[in-house]
Write a structure and sequence with these properties.
By secondary structure, this protein is of the alpha+beta class. It has a single domain (about 5-245), classed as Creatinase/methionine aminopeptidase superfamily (Creatine Amidinohydrolase). Helices cover about 30% and strands about 25% of the residues. Helix 1 packs across helix 2 (about 35-50) and helix 3 runs antiparallel to helix 4.
Amino acid sequence: MVIIKTAEQIQKMQEAANILVDVHHHLKELIVPGISTLEIDTWVDEYLASRGATAEQKGYMGYPYATCASVNDEICHGFPREDLLKDGDIVTIDMVVNYNGWLADSAWSYAVGNIDDESKRLMEVTKESMYKGIEQAIVGNRLGDVGHAIQKHAEAAGFSVVREFVGHGIGKNIHEDPQVLHYGMPGRGIRLTEGMVFTVEPMINMGTFRLTIDGNGWTARTADGKRSAQYEHTIAITENGPIILTDQGELR
């Protein structure tokens, strides 16, 4: 069942989102060659505490970290670790912030130093695909319109869309209805109505969309070892169009 949010509840989610956006602004400066994703995770955990917030996914179904840190061929749910990031890597940092019981969720892919042109293009197309989907998130459209816009843009650029992981409703719980596929047919799926809040978070791969899961039971990586990128926003559906609660402004 989709839980419709009131304007007051969306404002409470916006407060969580504002903290999350601040984290990503800091990460833009922190992520350089020579830092480890475990250092990043520790910094995020401490920063959230300083703002009176917590990392909602820490402990969720046994997940042990404040962030997911997915490097190069890792699609999502990468474990932060002591290995140092190298010049040319790409890393996606994903987190869910809890502030006064309300949540916001956002992932962002970052270039580590100087990356190759194809990685740049992957990141650009992935971000564009997310915004193409968000543009379709208007009252009266269907979820299939969102997924189709993402898939069409990504595949036209020669990339593939991960199927197994999807966007989701969010509010006081990490995962609520509806599930938001990043592929599909227009005109299909539930109709979008005012007060729905969900994430749009396409994972786009250079090669195949197929994946494997590491022995830790969490980390997904591309089956062919090629790179993956992800961008994610939490959005609210209003009569005047979607509001991007986790909008980062100049980081677009």
